[in-house]
Structures are given as structure tokens and as C-alpha cells.
Amino acid sequence: MTLINENFLKLSESYLFTEIARKVNAYKEENPKADIISLGIGDVTQPLAPAVIEALHKAVNEMATAASFRGYGPERGYDFLRDAIVENDFRAHGIDIVADEVFVGDGAKSDTGNFQELLGKDVVIALTDPVYPVYMDANRMAGRTALVKLPCTAENDFVPELPGEHVDVVYLCYPNNPTGTTLTRGQLAQWVDYALEQDAIILYDAAYEAYIQRRDVPHSIYEIPGARECAVEFRSYSKTAGFTGIRCGYTVVPKDLKLPLGALWSRRQATKFNGASYLSQRAAEAVYTAEGRAQVRATVAYYMENARLMRERLTSMGFKVYGGIDAPYLWMQTPAGMTSWECFDWMLRSAHVVCTPGVGFGCCGEGYVRLTAFGTRENTERALRQMANQL
Amino acid sequence: MTLINENFLKLSESYLFTEIARKVNAYKEENPKADIISLGIGDVTQPLAPAVIEALHKAVNEMATAASFRGYGPERGYDFLRDAIVENDFRAHGIDIVADEVFVGDGAKSDTGNFQELLGKDVVIALTDPVYPVYMDANRMAGRTALVKLPCTAENDFVPELPGEHVDVVYLCYPNNPTGTTLTRGQLAQWVDYALEQDAIILYDAAYEAYIQRRDVPHSIYEIPGARECAVEFRSYSKTAGFTGIRCGYTVVPKDLKLPLGALWSRRQATKFNGASYLSQRAAEAVYTAEGRAQVRATVAYYMENARLMRERLTSMGFKVYGGIDAPYLWMQTPAGMTSWECFDWMLRSAHVVCTPGVGFGCCGEGYVRLTAFGTRENTERALRQMANQL
Hints:
The structure is a homodimer of 391-residue chains.
Chain A: H1 16-30, E1 37-38, H2 50-62, H3 79-90, E2 102-105, H4 108-114, E3 125-129, H5 133-141, E4 147-151, E5 169-173, H6 185-198, E6 201-205, E7 231-236, E8 249-252, H7 261-272, H8 278-286, H9 290-316, E9 321-323, E10 329-333, H10 340-351, E11 353-354, E12 356-357, E13 368-372, H11 377-390
Parallel strand pairs in A: 1-11, 3-4, 3-5, 5-6, 6-7
Antiparallel strand pairs in A: 2-8, 7-8, 9-10, 10-13, 12-13
């Protein structure tokens, strides 16, 4: 017997973005004058919406007097937020979700990472390849090694094929991180049908939902008939409203699931979590006001204009790029047969642009890098110029 | 094979405080006019310190412009906070802890709940009885059933005896939740010696450290020689500074531990957590300013005056009470041989006072209830009068 959880030793030594930060810092130390632009980690750059700022100041003031002070919040989140979520994110789109199915948390990373705790140790889990590393690493930490990979490459237009074998759980992330590609309503419906037929659970990460532009791309898996019986959905304010530093998100666990995952998630969160900050919950509520919505949409449009510029200019430079139409990510084929990390090094050293090596998201990411549209316009344009100068 | 984690099914149906809330709500529905005072859940009632409010407004303003906006924070927390922690909570007391050993999180509940993930499945874990339910439930969720109980009762003055057998991990919480009792420096040194001798790890929860009054009670386990080689310490701003709704805490994982727990915790947090809110971290930093410290101390003194009144009056009513000298909790023997839940019902129905049944913290808590000093002065005095009227 060993004292530590040996599954941790089977992971790559560091989380992907930790490794990138290490490499960038090392380069900066050697080249202190290099003006490095990050299009790597998916962090936002635009400030919070004025409606959110106003809500935050108001919430801070509430904490200043005993009469309006708030301590521990309700376990599943405040009603003011859960009601706003249900009304705006679901009912307004004709989707039947009730407040009791909504669990407010501190972000989709925590929730998608922790949700696997509710599953049996030997369940068969399917993941796309490339994939957001959190799903993979969280399952490996729990000792699950029987992971079915669903390749997503240019050859299949980044649409994963249904598994030929039975799987118990499928993680799907659409709009996709890292490829920036999407599924149409019809393509997602095939997955819901598969899950219903196989008694499988879909863990659906819709963190980038706000970036969808095209009408045939679903914003929620619950737009698909039958999804209430087989799907859990994760949402986040990080990218929707720039909350990467504020921390708030939510998870929908419908009561129609065949497994009692709502009760189990409730028990898990009540035991090992103490709620998102009251301030963050008030900030999230403000995203749903008329002003909040308009301001947040304008910021999304700003990033999507970056994405458009990146697609256009990279294509005209001769790069092959995917995604970036309904998502803030572009998935770029590496030039001249470079590996992902070779391309990362080349871009860092020659153009001073940080990307994310595709292979960090899985074997099928080899030969690609991920670029994000979350920069400022100025930095995005400068990065594109610096890349053009290297060709 | 089952799809769900069956360990969850072996837990009591709900988290203790969820169950209490359910009972209180049911009573309120039947008796809408009853003026119920909660001395049950350990939530604070006094507002945030003015220095904290000021820091929060300032941090909110930073989020309003692109130049000062903050997105994802550093994985282990911002340096401004980790440096303040090291300087004020450790170096000022002659304790040798460095910033690299400090991991900022969203509270001690999350951290004490999640830390067991780093341990092997079959480690032998010792817990006091009564115990904060999070330690127990988190381990049961992970399938650990070989738990060694360390009884803490009036007979042993609530000081747990060293296990007669080998254990790998010991959870200690001092000042104690729920009993409100403490260990002297000498008593804690015996545990450190035991851990060093047995190659065991002590998970030391010091969430109530700010309430310590007596000089022979250690504020940190690192006051004890050898603790850097065997102990992890959890700290929280929830009770220290009223952050139950703000969410911030930290965990110290020293580099001298024989197991690589720092590296593992870093990997766990980088994968399944995305940091405490920037606002919460700025709020925590303000607790260490001269004004912040003085304001926070005044609030602790306010609660401790509640504790003194409760001890004095309950004793004069003939109740036998423990704790409440270096902690915001009083541990009261139930009168007339009542069980904990009978006493809970009696206090709710007759005096309209909510307590926490001791048995909810373990078998050795049967025959006790926990009362908190976190009420307002007015409510605390009223609760005491209502109890006196029932006798």
C-alpha cells in the first residue's frame, strides 16, 4: 500500500497551461526586451460590463452593514441567480429547466473536474481527442484508465463519430475547446439518441455558448429532444461575461436522468464546497439585466471580430485554420510539418506570439496549435503582423 | 458494475446542516409567527470590516477598465496575498513558512474536503469523534471505510488519546469544531511526535485560530518542532474575518513533508480549481492591514463576549457547558438524559432556539449539542432568556 494516490504519478508532470507559462517565463528571462503577445491561454482581456461593476459595488455595500450582510449562501446558489438563469438561458429559448435543477458553482472547470466523483470507478468514459485536459486528468486522478478516444481531425471535419462499442459516459464540449468547431443540431441529436439507446450520460460543456453565431448550432443540449433524460450541462460566466477572475458558473442536472445524479451532486457540493462568493453571484445576476446583456454581447462581438480578422489574415498568409466562426478559438495546422511544440517554439521565438500546442490536448491535436481571440484588438493585429513578417 | 459511485449511498442521506435547515423550515411553516434564533450553523452575523469593504470597492473598480482588469489569477493565489499570509500569520510569530508553501483557495471546507484525493485509497485515517462531518464524508465518498475513531468526551477532557495502532493520516481541528475545546502546546506536541515516529500525516484545521485567548494554546501547528515534516495546515477567513459569503482560505503544504503532497496538491488544484475570486483575495489581503487587523479583532472580541455570556448564563441555569473560551463554539450536555436530537427538538419548540445536535458530529457527540457565539448580542441574550424561561 502506498500513502499517496498513485494515479497522480501517471499524469504528465504539469497541467498544460502551467507548462506553457513555464516556457514563456524562461524565454522572457533570456529575452527581457521581447514584446510577447499571448494568444495561448483562453483568458479574456476586456473589463467587466458596467452593469456587472455596478452590481458588484452594490453587493459590497450590502456586506458593510449587519442588516444586509450575507454569510453562507444557499447550497445550490441564491434563488435570485437560479431564477434568472432558468428564465434567460432556458425558458426564453423554450427549454424546460427548473431552478431546482440548477447548481451554481465557482466555474465550469471545477464542476467538470469534480463531477466524475459521482461515477463508478469502472465506468467506460469517452472523450474527444483533442480534448480539454481537465476531463481527462480528473478521470485519471480517480484511477479511470479505460478511456475511449473519439478522434476529431480535419478528415472527419472535427465531428466525433459515435463509438462502435458501449460507453457509459461521454464528455462533449461545444462550441469546442480547443478546436473552435461546433456540432449542428442534427449532429448533436445523434449523440442524444446514442446516449438514450445505450443508457449513457452526456456531460455537455457549453462554456462557450455565448460565441455561437449560426442558427443551426444549438446553445444548449436541452434543445435536443430526449436530452433531459441523458445529459448534464455545464455553463460558465468566464468567457460569456469575462468572469475568469470573478469565478461563477453553473451546472444543470435534470430530474429526468435515469441515475440520481442530482441528489449525488447536491451531496457532493454540500460536503466539499461552500458556494460561489455572494459577490460573484450578484455579478452573474447582472449579466441578465437589459444593460448587462447588451454590454456582454458587445464584448463577445469584439472578440468575434478578432476571430474574423485572425481567420482572414492567417488564411491569406497560407495557414490552414479551423474554428473561430462560433467560438473564440482557432485551430491552426502547423506549417511545414512542424510538431505542435516546434510550432509553439517557432512562434514564440520568431513572432513573439504564444499559442497552445495542439498535442497538449491529445494525440490528435499533434500538428495543430490553438489560438484565442481573447486578446485586445491592438495585440491581435500586432500578433498577426509579427507572424506575417516571419513568412 | 454500477454507473454511480456507490460509496455515496452509504452516507447519511443529507449533510448535517442540510438536515437541520429542513427541520427548522418545517417548524417555521407550521409556526409562522415563531421568532426563531439560530445558534446552530456556525455562520457569522457581523458585517465585513471597513478596511475589507474599501479593498473590495477598489478591486471592483480595477475590474472596470482594461488596463487594471484581472482574469485568471496565479494558480496558487496572488503573491500580494501569499506574501501577506507568510509575513503576518507565520513570520511575525517566528514560524518558518515560505510563500511557495501557501496555496490560496476558496475556503477550508473545500480544501479539507478535497485534500484526501491525494491519498492512497487504503490509507488508515484517524478522526476525532465528534468531528467536523466534512473530513468523514469526504473520505467515505472516496471509499475509505477503515476510519479509526478517537473519542473526545468529558471523561478525557476532550483530548484525543494517541491511537494504539498505526495510522497513516490524522485529522485534527483546533480550536475544535464542534466542541470548542483546545489542545495545549504540549498536547499538540505529543501528536507531532507520534506522527514523526509513525510516518503519519497530520491534517490540521486551524480555521478558528483567531478565537484563541490563552497563551498556552498554539495558533499554528508549525509552532511545534517537527511539524514541518508531518503536518498540513488549513486556514480560513470565514470566521476570522466574516468571509463565509466571500469565500477565501488557504492551505500550507510544507516542503519538508516526506510525501510530495505539495506537488500533488498543486496538480490537483491546477486541474480541478481555478482560484479564489480576485475580489476575495484582495479582501483577504486587507485583513492584514493595521486597520483591518484592529477591526477584525474587535469583531472576534464581540463574538467572544457572546461566548462568555453564554457560558456564564447557561452554567447558572444548571447546564454543563464546555468550550467557548478559545473558540466560538460551546458544547453543552443535554439536560435530563435527552438525546441530541431530542434536545434539538426541545430547544426549537420550547425556546425557539436552533442548536446543532452533537450526534450529527459522531457517536461520541450523543448527549451534547453545539451552540455558536456568532449571533448578534441581542439575539444571543434573547436566546438565553428564552432558554431560562423554559427551565
